[in-house]
Design goal:
It contains 8 helices and 5 strands, in the order E-H-E-H-H-H-E-H-E-H-H-E-H. With 192 residues, the chain is of the alpha/beta class. It has a single domain, classed as Rossmann fold, CATH 3.40.50.300. Helix 1 packs across helix 8 and helix 2 crosses helix 3. Bound molecules: BIS(adenosine)-5'-pentaphosphate (AP5) and magnesium ion. BIS(adenosine)-5'-pentaphosphate binds next to helix 1, helix 2, helix 3, helix 6 and helix 8. Magnesium ion binds next to helix 1.
């Protein structure tokens, strides 16, 4: 298996680049944000609980997202590899992911970290909020809260994987294709 974490703040382009990467490398896309939004759409108890937290721009509890990822890994035994998008977001999630992959005799191969300035993030998310229907995109205060939550709780994920020399920074500003090419270059160096 070849497993990638696509890392970066809200609005850095993780979802956009994931779509292109999974098509090229035949990976299974696991986005905890997308899974949570489908739980909300299906009005499950988990979705209802998560919605009020997401609408404030805060992180949902570790146990919830770790459980979702564990089920998704079990549900895809034939996968050639996984592309994790928006997960892990805390050190506890990083440790849990490593343990889950180890059970499958696998590991994270690379963490690709998209670098985008805060002003560009806010601009992109407000712009997406005009059409996305995502309630956490419509209000600048909530967008800033998501970025603050990232700075406070999620940047440690990069520190965690730096200890294992797995982090590569990629410039996340430019055209979607330029950024995609930079990501592919880093993957191609590492994929057998
Ligand atoms: P999640 O769904 O993961 O959202 P996020 O991290 O806030 O990031 P986004 O999806 O908003 O941005 P993105 O990086 O995917 O960028 P995109 O490609 O869409 O999480 C939502 C919430 O769920 C969290 O706040 C939390 O509550 C909860 N949650 C999820 N995972 C969790 C976890 N593991 N633990 C705890 N809680 C969790 O691009 C953004 C916009 O920019 C788009 O409009 C796009 O078209 C545009 N764009 C993309 N690339 C470019 C470019 N190169 N130039 C210009 N515009 C671009
Ligand atoms: Mg996304």
């Amino acid at each position: 298996m070849f497993n990638i974490i696509l890392f970066g703040p809200p609005g850095s382009g993780k979802g956009t680049q994931s779509e292109k990467l999974i098509a090229k490398y035949q990976l299974k896309h696991l986005s905890t944000g997308d899974i949570l939004r489908s739980e909300i759409a299906a009005k499950t108890p988990l979705g209802l609980e998560a919605k009020s937290i997401m609408d404030k721009g805060q992180l949902v509890p570790d146990e919830v997202v770790i459980g979702m990822i564990s089920s998704a890994l079990d549900a895809n035994p034939q996968a050639k590899g996984f592309l994790f998008d928006g997960f892990p977001r805390t050190e506890a999630q990083s440790e849990a992911l490593d343990a889950l992959l180890k059970l499958k005799h696998s590991a994270i191969n690379v963490v690709l970290a998209l670098e985008v300035t805060e002003e560009e993030l806010v601009k992109r998310l407000l712009n997406r909020g005009l059409t996305s229907g995502r309630s956490d995109d419509t209000n600048e205060d909530v967008i800033r809260a998501r970025i603050a939550e990232y700075n406070k709780k999620t940047t440690v994920v990069a520190d965690y994987y730096k200890r294992f020399n797995k982090v590569v920074s990629v410039k996340g500003i430019g055209s979607v294709d330029e950024i995609f090419n930079s990501l592919c270059k880093e993957i191609d160096k590492r994929i057998a």
